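User: For a teaching handout, I'd like to show students what a predicted protein-ligand complex looks like in token form. I'll give you the sequence and the SMILES for magnesium ion. Please answer with just the structure.
Assistant: Understood, here is the input followed by the structure.
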Amino acid sequence: MKSNRVAVLSKWTKTKVLLQNKSIKPFIPDTRKFNMNNLRTMIHQYKMVYVKPECGTHGKGVIRAEMIDEYSYKYQINENILKFKTFSEFHKSLVKQIKKRRYLIQKGIHLLKQNHRRFDIRVMVQVNPKGRWETTGIIGRLGHARKIVTNYHSEGKPMSIESLLHNHLSRSQQTQLHKKLSSLGIQIASHLSKTYPKFRQIGVDIGLDKTITPQIIEVNTQPDPYIFNQLKDKSMYRRVMSCRRATVKK
Ligand SMILES: Nc1ncnc2c1ncn2[C@@H]1O[C@H](COP(=O)(O)OP(=O)(O)O)[C@@H](O)[C@H]1O
Ligand SMILES: [Mg+2]
């Protein structure tokens, strides 16, 4: 079914639409609604999960939860770490954090690090002046040392992906990854625009662990273009902004 929406806030809705596409599906980490059963199953299966607001932004309210051993659990929200001796205490405390809000649980990705800080990647995809989807920017975001999110609004630092990946990948592997992310971004945008033909830009958050398989953390329908202005090299920023102007003129 088509929708006239220009933005979608629910990460659950967007995930369900993306899962319809067989070639995108392998890049989506297991994501389920927050409830006790799903929490128990997922934390035992994956050992580390992210528990996050269905409609959150800026990394607010995002929780990183871990099973330490058979009997103990911990989670981190903002800079606070809490530990528990039983699953039921762990669950009860999470429910207290969540209150009445809708939350999701997602398989945790052990994000690559630089100087003990986690980083992920934002892929900006926009409709270009020719009316085609184009990947206009790919940027890394290095999280704050004591935080579990990488968002700019949670003190993450936008950086070129070369500066973050050079310790993990060779030049030619970086080029390969760049191509892969660029085409995955276009695939995601094209697929979403079948349901949401009014979309003109998306920002895909991609997580990488040591296997370097891209994992789609979330898709933003109102991506912040200004993180690209944080780099010394302004060429990507100019490209992003020229697509925005083209969109506004239409
Ligand atoms: N499944 C996950 N594995 C690892 N890190 C994650 C996961 N989900 C979220 N994060 C981290 O938290 C940040 C914020 O989560 P995200 O789902 O993008 O919500 P928001 O809308 O608040 O940006 C991500 O950029 C990433 O750094
Ligand atoms: Mg995000």
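For the handout, you might add this sentence: Helices lie at 11-19, 36-46, 87-98, 161-165, 171-195, 235-249.
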